[in-house]
Amino acid sequence: MSQTLIKNATLLTMCPQNGTKPFEGDILIEDGRIAAIGQNLAAQPSATLIDGHSRLVMPGLINAHTHSSETFFRGRYEGMPLEIWLLYAYPLLMGPVIDDRLLYLRSLLLAMDSLRNGVTTICDDFFDPPVHDLSRLSTVFKAYDDAGIRANVSSAAMNVHTLDALPFAREIMPRYLQEKLDFGPPMSAEAYIDYCRSAFASLHGKASRLNFMIAPSAPQRCTPDLLQACHALAVEMGVPLHTHILETKTQAVTGHQIYGKSLIGYMHDLGVLSRNTTIAHSVWVSESDMEMMGDAGCSIAHNAVSNQKLGAGIAPIRHLMNAGITIALGTDGVSSNDTARIFDVMRVAGLIHSVSGPDFDQWIRADEILTMATIGGARSAMLENVTGSLDIGKAADLLILDLTTLSFTPLNDIAKHLVYAENGSSIETVMIAGRIVVQDGRLQTIDEAAILAEIRELIPAHLAAHAKLEARNAALHSTMAEIHRRATSTEIGMNRYTGGPRA
Protein backbone atom coordinates (compact mmCIF):
# COMPACT_ATOMS: atom_id res chain seq x y z
CA MET A 1 0.00 0.00 0.00
CA SER A 2 1.41 3.39 -1.02
CA GLN A 3 0.75 6.37 1.21
CA THR A 4 1.19 10.14 0.97
CA LEU A 5 0.64 12.39 3.95
CA ILE A 6 0.17 16.14 3.56
CA LYS A 7 0.81 17.71 6.97
CA ASN A 8 -0.27 21.02 8.51
CA ALA A 9 -1.93 22.49 5.45
CA THR A 10 -4.84 24.87 5.01
CA LEU A 11 -7.62 22.67 3.65
CA LEU A 12 -10.48 23.79 1.44
CA THR A 13 -12.48 20.60 1.01
CA MET A 14 -15.69 21.72 -0.79
CA CYS A 15 -17.45 18.85 1.00
CA PRO A 16 -20.92 19.39 2.55
CA GLN A 17 -19.59 19.69 6.09
CA ASN A 18 -17.06 22.45 5.38
CA GLY A 19 -17.86 23.94 1.96
CA THR A 20 -15.57 26.89 1.30
CA LYS A 21 -14.60 27.32 4.96
CA PRO A 22 -10.86 26.59 5.24
CA PHE A 23 -9.32 24.86 8.23
CA GLU A 24 -5.91 23.56 9.27
CA GLY A 25 -5.22 19.85 9.03
CA ASP A 26 -3.66 16.84 7.35
CA ILE A 27 -4.70 14.60 4.46
CA LEU A 28 -3.72 10.96 4.23
CA ILE A 29 -3.78 9.41 0.76
CA GLU A 30 -3.67 5.64 0.27
CA ASP A 31 -3.44 3.99 -3.15
CA GLY A 32 -4.71 7.09 -4.91
CA ARG A 33 -7.69 7.76 -2.64
CA ILE A 34 -8.25 10.02 0.34
CA ALA A 35 -8.07 7.80 3.43
CA ALA A 36 -8.33 10.37 6.23
CA ILE A 37 -8.66 14.10 6.88
CA GLY A 38 -7.91 15.55 10.30
CA GLN A 39 -5.25 16.75 12.68
CA ASN A 40 -2.09 14.90 13.69
CA LEU A 41 -2.62 12.02 11.28
CA ALA A 42 -0.06 9.22 11.27
CA ALA A 43 1.34 7.32 8.31
CA GLN A 44 3.59 4.37 7.60
CA PRO A 45 7.36 5.01 7.79
CA SER A 46 7.54 4.52 4.02
CA ALA A 47 4.90 7.19 3.29
CA THR A 48 5.75 10.23 1.20
CA LEU A 49 5.50 13.32 3.42
CA ILE A 50 4.52 16.75 2.06
CA ASP A 51 4.89 19.80 4.28
CA GLY A 52 1.68 21.80 3.99
CA HIS A 53 2.83 24.81 6.00
CA SER A 54 1.68 28.03 4.27
CA ARG A 55 0.06 25.89 1.60
CA LEU A 56 -3.55 25.54 0.48
CA VAL A 57 -4.87 22.12 -0.48
CA MET A 58 -8.10 22.14 -2.51
CA PRO A 59 -9.89 19.92 -5.03
CA GLY A 60 -8.68 19.98 -8.59
CA LEU A 61 -10.70 22.16 -10.94
CA ILE A 62 -13.10 20.65 -13.45
CA ASN A 63 -13.50 21.92 -17.00
CA ALA A 64 -17.09 20.89 -17.70
CA HIS A 65 -17.05 21.73 -21.40
CA THR A 66 -14.25 22.01 -23.93
CA HIS A 67 -13.29 20.99 -27.47
CA SER A 68 -9.77 19.70 -28.09
CA SER A 69 -10.38 20.09 -31.83
CA GLU A 70 -9.75 23.84 -31.42
CA THR A 71 -6.44 23.63 -29.60
CA PHE A 72 -4.28 24.63 -32.58
CA PHE A 73 -6.40 27.75 -33.21
CA ARG A 74 -5.44 29.65 -30.08
CA GLY A 75 -5.16 33.37 -30.85
CA ARG A 76 -6.46 32.98 -34.42
CA TYR A 77 -9.91 34.60 -34.46
CA GLU A 78 -11.80 37.52 -32.96
CA GLY A 79 -14.75 39.75 -33.70
CA MET A 80 -17.03 37.00 -34.99
CA PRO A 81 -20.36 35.74 -33.62
CA LEU A 82 -20.67 31.98 -33.29
CA GLU A 83 -22.36 31.28 -36.61
CA ILE A 84 -19.60 33.06 -38.56
CA TRP A 85 -16.74 31.80 -36.39
CA LEU A 86 -17.87 28.20 -36.94
CA LEU A 87 -17.16 28.59 -40.67
CA TYR A 88 -13.48 29.01 -39.96
CA ALA A 89 -12.85 26.95 -36.83
CA TYR A 90 -15.09 24.11 -38.07
CA PRO A 91 -15.17 24.58 -41.86
CA LEU A 92 -18.36 23.48 -43.59
CA LEU A 93 -16.40 22.99 -46.79
CA MET A 94 -14.12 20.43 -45.23
CA GLY A 95 -10.67 19.20 -46.13
CA PRO A 96 -8.81 16.02 -45.08
CA VAL A 97 -8.99 15.04 -41.43
CA ILE A 98 -6.04 15.89 -39.25
CA ASP A 99 -3.48 13.06 -39.22
CA ASP A 100 -3.16 10.73 -36.24
CA ARG A 101 0.02 12.28 -34.86
CA LEU A 102 -1.42 15.79 -34.90
CA LEU A 103 -4.65 14.45 -33.41
CA TYR A 104 -2.60 13.02 -30.53
CA LEU A 105 -0.55 16.20 -30.10
CA ARG A 106 -3.64 18.41 -30.28
CA SER A 107 -5.27 16.45 -27.46
CA LEU A 108 -2.06 16.32 -25.45
CA LEU A 109 -1.59 20.09 -25.74
CA LEU A 110 -5.03 20.66 -24.22
CA ALA A 111 -4.18 18.29 -21.38
CA MET A 112 -0.87 20.06 -20.77
CA ASP A 113 -2.52 23.50 -20.66
CA SER A 114 -5.19 22.16 -18.34
CA LEU A 115 -2.90 20.39 -15.88
CA ARG A 116 -0.45 23.26 -15.54
CA ASN A 117 -3.38 25.48 -14.57
CA GLY A 118 -4.98 23.22 -12.00
CA VAL A 119 -7.62 21.46 -14.10
CA THR A 120 -7.66 17.79 -13.14
CA THR A 121 -10.79 16.73 -15.08
CA ILE A 122 -11.87 17.76 -18.58
CA CYS A 123 -15.03 17.00 -20.54
CA ASP A 124 -13.81 16.97 -24.13
CA ASP A 125 -16.42 17.03 -26.89
CA PHE A 126 -14.01 16.95 -29.80
CA PHE A 127 -15.05 17.18 -33.44
CA ASP A 128 -13.61 14.79 -35.99
CA PRO A 129 -15.61 14.75 -39.24
CA PRO A 130 -16.77 13.15 -41.37
CA VAL A 131 -17.17 9.81 -39.55
CA HIS A 132 -16.84 8.43 -36.04
CA ASP A 133 -13.77 6.23 -35.93
CA LEU A 134 -12.88 4.11 -32.91
CA SER A 135 -9.17 4.16 -33.66
CA ARG A 136 -9.11 7.96 -33.73
CA LEU A 137 -11.08 8.09 -30.49
CA SER A 138 -8.44 5.73 -29.07
CA THR A 139 -5.75 8.24 -30.08
CA VAL A 140 -7.42 10.94 -27.99
CA PHE A 141 -7.75 8.54 -25.05
CA LYS A 142 -4.05 7.67 -25.34
CA ALA A 143 -3.07 11.35 -25.17
CA TYR A 144 -5.05 11.81 -21.98
CA ASP A 145 -3.74 8.56 -20.55
CA ASP A 146 -0.15 9.66 -21.20
CA ALA A 147 -0.78 13.08 -19.64
CA GLY A 148 -2.34 11.57 -16.52
CA ILE A 149 -5.49 13.70 -16.61
CA ARG A 150 -9.04 12.58 -15.78
CA ALA A 151 -11.43 12.99 -18.71
CA ASN A 152 -14.85 12.37 -20.16
CA VAL A 153 -14.37 12.14 -23.92
CA SER A 154 -16.63 11.97 -26.97
CA SER A 155 -16.81 13.09 -30.55
CA ALA A 156 -19.83 15.25 -31.36
CA ALA A 157 -22.64 13.51 -33.25
CA MET A 158 -25.00 15.14 -35.73
CA ASN A 159 -27.16 13.83 -38.57
CA VAL A 160 -29.19 16.84 -39.70
CA HIS A 161 -27.84 18.95 -42.58
CA THR A 162 -26.28 22.19 -41.33
CA LEU A 163 -28.62 24.35 -43.41
CA ASP A 164 -31.64 22.58 -41.95
CA ALA A 165 -30.43 23.38 -38.43
CA LEU A 166 -30.29 27.14 -39.03
CA PRO A 167 -33.11 29.64 -39.52
CA PHE A 168 -33.34 31.41 -42.90
CA ALA A 169 -30.40 29.43 -44.32
CA ARG A 170 -32.13 27.80 -47.28
CA GLU A 171 -33.68 31.07 -48.42
CA ILE A 172 -30.52 33.14 -47.99
CA MET A 173 -27.75 30.92 -49.33
CA PRO A 174 -27.43 30.80 -53.12
CA ARG A 175 -28.32 27.43 -54.61
CA TYR A 176 -24.86 26.89 -56.09
CA LEU A 177 -23.32 27.21 -52.61
CA GLN A 178 -25.91 24.92 -51.08
CA GLU A 179 -24.97 22.28 -53.63
CA LYS A 180 -21.37 22.40 -52.44
CA LEU A 181 -22.43 21.36 -48.94
CA ASP A 182 -22.70 17.67 -49.67
CA PHE A 183 -21.98 15.69 -46.52
CA GLY A 184 -23.09 12.33 -47.88
CA PRO A 185 -25.89 10.21 -46.41
CA PRO A 186 -26.74 11.13 -42.81
CA MET A 187 -25.62 8.83 -40.01
CA SER A 188 -28.40 6.69 -38.58
CA ALA A 189 -29.17 6.48 -34.89
CA GLU A 190 -28.38 2.75 -35.00
CA ALA A 191 -24.93 3.36 -36.47
CA TYR A 192 -24.01 5.94 -33.83
CA ILE A 193 -25.24 3.77 -30.97
CA ASP A 194 -23.24 0.82 -32.32
CA TYR A 195 -20.16 3.08 -32.32
CA CYS A 196 -20.90 4.19 -28.76
CA ARG A 197 -21.29 0.61 -27.53
CA SER A 198 -17.94 -0.26 -29.09
CA ALA A 199 -16.37 2.73 -27.32
CA PHE A 200 -17.85 1.64 -24.00
CA ALA A 201 -16.57 -1.89 -24.50
CA SER A 202 -13.01 -0.94 -25.49
CA LEU A 203 -12.20 2.44 -23.90
CA HIS A 204 -14.62 3.38 -21.13
CA GLY A 205 -12.95 3.22 -17.73
CA LYS A 206 -9.42 3.18 -19.17
CA ALA A 207 -6.79 3.76 -16.47
CA SER A 208 -9.73 4.14 -14.05
CA ARG A 209 -10.00 7.82 -14.98
CA LEU A 210 -10.92 8.03 -18.68
CA ASN A 211 -14.56 7.64 -19.67
CA PHE A 212 -16.66 7.83 -22.80
CA MET A 213 -19.64 10.18 -22.75
CA ILE A 214 -22.41 10.56 -25.32
CA ALA A 215 -22.47 13.86 -27.18
CA PRO A 216 -25.25 14.65 -29.64
CA SER A 217 -24.08 18.07 -30.80
CA ALA A 218 -27.36 19.95 -30.37
CA PRO A 219 -31.06 19.09 -30.64
CA GLN A 220 -31.50 20.96 -33.94
CA ARG A 221 -28.53 19.08 -35.42
CA CYS A 222 -29.83 15.60 -34.55
CA THR A 223 -32.92 13.65 -35.56
CA PRO A 224 -35.40 12.81 -32.77
CA ASP A 225 -34.57 9.10 -32.88
CA LEU A 226 -30.85 9.87 -32.50
CA LEU A 227 -31.49 12.11 -29.49
CA GLN A 228 -33.72 9.52 -27.83
CA ALA A 229 -31.32 6.66 -28.52
CA CYS A 230 -28.41 8.71 -27.12
CA HIS A 231 -30.35 9.53 -23.99
CA ALA A 232 -31.42 5.95 -23.41
CA LEU A 233 -27.83 4.72 -23.71
CA ALA A 234 -26.52 7.51 -21.45
CA VAL A 235 -28.99 6.48 -18.75
CA GLU A 236 -28.14 2.80 -19.24
CA MET A 237 -24.39 3.44 -18.91
CA GLY A 238 -24.60 6.13 -16.23
CA VAL A 239 -22.77 8.77 -18.27
CA PRO A 240 -23.63 12.31 -19.35
CA LEU A 241 -25.63 13.17 -22.43
CA HIS A 242 -23.48 16.19 -23.27
CA THR A 243 -24.97 18.70 -25.69
CA HIS A 244 -25.17 22.38 -26.69
CA ILE A 245 -28.45 24.27 -26.27
CA LEU A 246 -29.38 27.94 -26.67
CA GLU A 247 -25.92 29.42 -26.90
CA THR A 248 -26.99 32.25 -29.23
CA LYS A 249 -30.06 34.22 -30.23
CA THR A 250 -29.89 32.41 -33.58
CA GLN A 251 -30.38 29.10 -31.78
CA ALA A 252 -33.31 30.56 -29.85
CA VAL A 253 -34.93 31.56 -33.14
CA THR A 254 -34.15 28.13 -34.58
CA GLY A 255 -36.27 26.34 -32.01
CA HIS A 256 -39.32 28.50 -32.53
CA GLN A 257 -39.03 28.49 -36.32
CA ILE A 258 -38.40 24.77 -36.80
CA TYR A 259 -40.27 23.20 -33.88
CA GLY A 260 -42.65 25.95 -32.79
CA LYS A 261 -41.15 25.92 -29.30
CA SER A 262 -37.86 26.47 -27.51
CA LEU A 263 -35.14 23.88 -27.94
CA ILE A 264 -35.46 23.04 -24.23
CA GLY A 265 -39.18 22.48 -24.71
CA TYR A 266 -38.39 20.29 -27.70
CA MET A 267 -35.93 18.23 -25.61
CA HIS A 268 -38.53 17.96 -22.85
CA ASP A 269 -41.19 16.69 -25.25
CA LEU A 270 -38.76 14.07 -26.58
CA GLY A 271 -38.11 12.87 -23.02
CA VAL A 272 -34.38 13.56 -23.11
CA LEU A 273 -34.06 16.01 -20.23
CA SER A 274 -32.87 14.21 -17.11
CA ARG A 275 -30.16 13.97 -14.48
CA ASN A 276 -27.86 12.69 -17.25
CA THR A 277 -28.37 15.77 -19.43
CA THR A 278 -25.55 18.32 -19.35
CA ILE A 279 -26.19 21.44 -21.40
CA ALA A 280 -23.38 23.68 -22.55
CA HIS A 281 -24.20 27.41 -22.54
CA SER A 282 -27.93 27.82 -21.71
CA VAL A 283 -27.80 31.56 -22.44
CA TRP A 284 -31.12 32.18 -24.21
CA VAL A 285 -33.39 30.20 -21.89
CA SER A 286 -36.81 31.33 -20.66
CA GLU A 287 -38.34 30.92 -17.22
CA SER A 288 -40.35 27.94 -18.46
CA ASP A 289 -37.19 26.41 -19.95
CA MET A 290 -35.43 26.70 -16.60
CA GLU A 291 -38.38 25.18 -14.76
CA MET A 292 -38.26 22.14 -17.07
CA MET A 293 -34.49 21.85 -16.65
CA GLY A 294 -34.72 22.10 -12.88
CA ASP A 295 -37.53 19.56 -12.62
CA ALA A 296 -35.48 17.15 -14.73
CA GLY A 297 -32.31 17.61 -12.65
CA CYS A 298 -30.17 18.86 -15.55
CA SER A 299 -26.74 20.45 -15.32
CA ILE A 300 -25.31 23.31 -17.35
CA ALA A 301 -21.73 24.19 -18.22
CA HIS A 302 -21.38 27.96 -17.93
CA ASN A 303 -18.82 29.17 -20.50
CA ALA A 304 -18.48 32.72 -19.24
CA VAL A 305 -15.41 33.67 -21.29
CA SER A 306 -16.34 32.02 -24.59
CA ASN A 307 -19.86 33.47 -24.51
CA GLN A 308 -18.39 36.95 -24.27
CA LYS A 309 -15.77 36.47 -26.99
CA LEU A 310 -18.42 35.20 -29.41
CA GLY A 311 -20.97 37.82 -28.33
CA ALA A 312 -23.50 35.14 -27.37
CA GLY A 313 -24.78 36.83 -24.20
CA ILE A 314 -24.71 36.21 -20.47
CA ALA A 315 -26.39 33.11 -19.10
CA PRO A 316 -29.02 33.78 -16.37
CA ILE A 317 -27.00 31.95 -13.74
CA ARG A 318 -28.85 33.12 -10.62
CA HIS A 319 -32.19 32.17 -12.19
CA LEU A 320 -30.76 28.79 -13.21
CA MET A 321 -29.48 28.21 -9.68
CA ASN A 322 -32.85 29.20 -8.21
CA ALA A 323 -34.49 26.63 -10.50
CA GLY A 324 -32.37 23.89 -8.89
CA ILE A 325 -30.05 23.36 -11.86
CA THR A 326 -26.46 22.25 -11.20
CA ILE A 327 -23.99 24.83 -12.50
CA ALA A 328 -20.52 23.90 -13.71
CA LEU A 329 -17.85 25.97 -15.45
CA GLY A 330 -16.33 25.35 -18.87
CA THR A 331 -13.70 27.09 -20.96
CA ASP A 332 -15.27 25.95 -24.24
CA GLY A 333 -12.63 25.37 -26.91
CA VAL A 334 -9.29 27.15 -26.91
CA SER A 335 -10.24 28.99 -30.12
CA SER A 336 -13.28 30.67 -28.56
CA ASN A 337 -11.49 31.32 -25.27
CA ASP A 338 -7.75 31.17 -26.05
CA THR A 339 -6.85 29.38 -22.82
CA ALA A 340 -7.85 26.22 -20.96
CA ARG A 341 -7.67 28.02 -17.61
CA ILE A 342 -10.72 27.59 -15.39
CA PHE A 343 -9.22 30.27 -13.12
CA ASP A 344 -9.96 32.75 -15.93
CA VAL A 345 -13.53 31.50 -16.21
CA MET A 346 -13.97 31.75 -12.44
CA ARG A 347 -12.92 35.39 -12.42
CA VAL A 348 -15.10 36.37 -15.38
CA ALA A 349 -18.07 34.46 -13.98
CA GLY A 350 -17.55 36.21 -10.67
CA LEU A 351 -17.67 39.62 -12.38
CA ILE A 352 -20.09 39.65 -15.31
CA HIS A 353 -23.21 38.81 -13.33
CA SER A 354 -22.83 41.94 -11.25
CA VAL A 355 -24.11 44.00 -14.19
CA SER A 356 -27.41 42.14 -14.24
CA GLY A 357 -29.32 44.61 -12.14
CA PRO A 358 -29.34 46.71 -8.98
CA ASP A 359 -30.31 43.85 -6.64
CA PHE A 360 -26.79 43.11 -5.44
CA ASP A 361 -28.03 40.38 -3.10
CA GLN A 362 -28.55 38.33 -6.26
CA TRP A 363 -25.04 38.77 -7.61
CA ILE A 364 -22.90 35.62 -7.76
CA ARG A 365 -20.51 35.15 -4.82
CA ALA A 366 -17.02 33.68 -4.76
CA ASP A 367 -18.06 30.63 -2.74
CA GLU A 368 -20.71 29.85 -5.36
CA ILE A 369 -18.16 30.18 -8.16
CA LEU A 370 -15.81 27.77 -6.38
CA THR A 371 -18.65 25.28 -6.02
CA MET A 372 -19.27 25.49 -9.78
CA ALA A 373 -15.58 24.93 -10.52
CA THR A 374 -15.29 21.84 -8.32
CA ILE A 375 -18.19 19.73 -7.08
CA GLY A 376 -20.64 21.36 -9.51
CA GLY A 377 -18.38 20.34 -12.37
CA ALA A 378 -18.11 16.83 -10.97
CA ARG A 379 -21.90 16.52 -10.81
CA SER A 380 -22.26 17.75 -14.38
CA ALA A 381 -19.78 15.04 -15.45
CA MET A 382 -21.57 12.45 -13.28
CA LEU A 383 -18.34 12.01 -11.33
CA GLU A 384 -19.41 13.48 -8.00
CA ASN A 385 -18.70 10.18 -6.23
CA VAL A 386 -15.17 10.19 -7.62
CA THR A 387 -13.87 13.76 -7.59
CA GLY A 388 -14.84 17.41 -7.05
CA SER A 389 -14.27 17.59 -3.29
CA LEU A 390 -11.82 16.35 -0.71
CA ASP A 391 -13.83 13.55 0.89
CA ILE A 392 -12.75 10.24 2.37
CA GLY A 393 -12.98 7.54 -0.27
CA LYS A 394 -12.75 9.89 -3.24
CA ALA A 395 -9.85 10.03 -5.65
CA ALA A 396 -7.02 12.27 -4.52
CA ASP A 397 -7.47 14.84 -7.29
CA LEU A 398 -6.10 17.96 -5.66
CA LEU A 399 -4.05 21.12 -5.94
CA ILE A 400 -1.44 22.49 -3.56
CA LEU A 401 -1.03 26.27 -3.81
CA ASP A 402 1.57 28.51 -2.20
CA LEU A 403 -0.20 30.99 0.10
CA THR A 404 2.88 33.26 0.29
CA THR A 405 2.59 34.51 -3.31
CA LEU A 406 1.43 37.95 -4.40
CA SER A 407 -2.04 36.57 -5.17
CA PHE A 408 -2.58 35.77 -1.50
CA THR A 409 -0.68 38.67 0.10
CA PRO A 410 -2.07 39.97 2.36
CA LEU A 411 -4.39 37.04 3.01
CA ASN A 412 -8.01 37.99 3.63
CA ASP A 413 -10.62 35.53 2.35
CA ILE A 414 -9.30 32.45 0.51
CA ALA A 415 -12.40 31.94 -1.64
CA LYS A 416 -12.29 35.53 -2.88
CA HIS A 417 -8.54 35.33 -3.51
CA LEU A 418 -9.05 32.18 -5.61
CA VAL A 419 -11.82 33.70 -7.72
CA TYR A 420 -10.63 37.29 -8.12
CA ALA A 421 -6.85 37.30 -7.53
CA GLU A 422 -5.35 33.92 -8.42
CA ASN A 423 -4.62 32.85 -12.01
CA GLY A 424 -2.98 29.48 -11.40
CA SER A 425 0.53 30.85 -10.93
CA SER A 426 0.53 29.90 -7.23
CA ILE A 427 0.05 26.20 -7.99
CA GLU A 428 2.98 24.09 -6.81
CA THR A 429 1.55 20.59 -7.11
CA VAL A 430 -1.22 18.95 -9.09
CA MET A 431 -2.22 15.44 -8.07
CA ILE A 432 -4.64 13.09 -9.84
CA ALA A 433 -5.63 9.80 -8.22
CA GLY A 434 -2.76 10.32 -5.80
CA ARG A 435 -0.17 10.68 -8.55
CA ILE A 436 1.76 13.93 -8.84
CA VAL A 437 1.38 15.12 -12.43
CA VAL A 438 2.68 18.69 -11.97
CA GLN A 439 5.40 19.66 -9.53
CA ASP A 440 6.87 23.16 -9.22
CA GLY A 441 5.35 24.17 -12.54
CA ARG A 442 6.73 21.17 -14.44
CA LEU A 443 4.73 18.32 -15.93
CA GLN A 444 5.89 15.01 -14.50
CA THR A 445 4.19 12.67 -16.98
CA ILE A 446 5.61 13.80 -20.34
CA ASP A 447 8.56 15.66 -21.80
CA GLU A 448 6.86 19.01 -22.24
CA ALA A 449 9.73 20.69 -24.07
CA ALA A 450 9.94 17.87 -26.62
CA ILE A 451 6.19 17.89 -27.23
CA LEU A 452 6.09 21.66 -27.73
CA ALA A 453 9.08 21.49 -30.07
CA GLU A 454 7.38 18.80 -32.17
CA ILE A 455 4.19 20.87 -32.37
CA ARG A 456 6.16 23.92 -33.48
CA GLU A 457 7.81 21.82 -36.18
CA LEU A 458 4.63 20.23 -37.53
CA ILE A 459 2.03 22.94 -37.11
CA PRO A 460 3.03 25.44 -39.84
CA ALA A 461 2.07 23.03 -42.62
CA HIS A 462 -1.20 22.20 -40.88
CA LEU A 463 -2.13 25.85 -40.38
CA ALA A 464 -1.20 26.66 -43.98
CA ALA A 465 -3.61 23.95 -45.15
CA HIS A 466 -6.25 25.27 -42.76
CA ALA A 467 -5.81 28.78 -44.17
CA LYS A 468 -6.83 27.42 -47.57
CA LEU A 469 -9.97 25.97 -45.99
CA GLU A 470 -10.70 29.34 -44.41
CA ALA A 471 -10.43 30.98 -47.82
CA ARG A 472 -12.86 28.45 -49.33
CA ASN A 473 -15.35 28.92 -46.52
CA ALA A 474 -15.21 32.70 -46.79
CA ALA A 475 -17.70 32.26 -49.66
CA LEU A 476 -20.29 31.38 -46.99
CA HIS A 477 -19.45 34.31 -44.72
CA SER A 478 -22.13 36.70 -46.01
CA THR A 479 -24.83 34.04 -45.62
CA MET A 480 -23.93 33.38 -42.00
CA ALA A 481 -23.68 37.10 -41.31
CA GLU A 482 -27.19 37.61 -42.69
CA ILE A 483 -28.56 34.70 -40.62
CA HIS A 484 -27.04 36.29 -37.55
CA ARG A 485 -28.46 39.71 -38.44
CA ARG A 486 -31.97 38.40 -39.05
CA ALA A 487 -31.98 36.24 -35.93
CA THR A 488 -30.83 39.02 -33.65
CA SER A 489 -33.66 41.24 -34.91
CA THR A 490 -36.36 38.53 -34.63
CA GLU A 491 -38.85 38.53 -31.80
CA ILE A 492 -39.32 35.03 -30.39
CA GLY A 493 -41.91 35.60 -27.69
CA MET A 494 -39.79 34.45 -24.77
CA ASN A 495 -41.42 35.01 -21.41
CA ARG A 496 -38.51 36.96 -19.94
CA TYR A 497 -36.27 39.68 -21.30
CA THR A 498 -33.40 38.59 -23.51
CA GLY A 499 -30.34 39.99 -25.15
CA GLY A 500 -28.98 42.17 -22.36
CA PRO A 501 -26.73 41.43 -19.40
CA ARG A 502 -28.38 38.92 -17.13
CA ALA A 503 -27.57 37.22 -13.83
Automatic annotation (TrEMBL):
<keyword id="KW-0378">Hydrolase</keyword>
<feature type="domain" description="Amidohydrolase-related">
    <location>
        <begin position="56"/>
        <end position="437"/>
    </location>
</feature>
<dbReference type="InterPro" id="IPR050287">
    <property type="entry name" value="MTA/SAH_deaminase"/>
</dbReference>
<dbReference type="GO" id="GO:0050270">
    <property type="term" value="F:S-adenosylhomocysteine deaminase activity"/>
</dbReference>
<protein>
    <submittedName>
        <fullName>5-methylthioadenosine/S-adenosylhomocysteine deaminase</fullName>
        <ecNumber>3.5.4.28</ecNumber>
        <ecNumber>3.5.4.31</ecNumber>
    </submittedName>
</protein>
<dbReference type="GO" id="GO:0090614">
    <property type="term" value="F:5'-methylthioadenosine deaminase activity"/>
</dbReference>
<dbReference type="InterPro" id="IPR032466">
    <property type="entry name" value="Metal_Hydrolase"/>
</dbReference>
<dbReference type="InterPro" id="IPR006680">
    <property type="entry name" value="Amidohydro-rel"/>
</dbReference>
<dbReference type="InterPro" id="IPR011059">
    <property type="entry name" value="Metal-dep_hydrolase_composite"/>
</dbReference>
<comment type="similarity">
    <text>Belongs to the metallo-dependent hydrolases superfamily. ATZ/TRZ family.</text>
</comment>
<dbReference type="Pfam" id="PF01979">
    <property type="entry name" value="Amidohydro_1"/>
</dbReference>
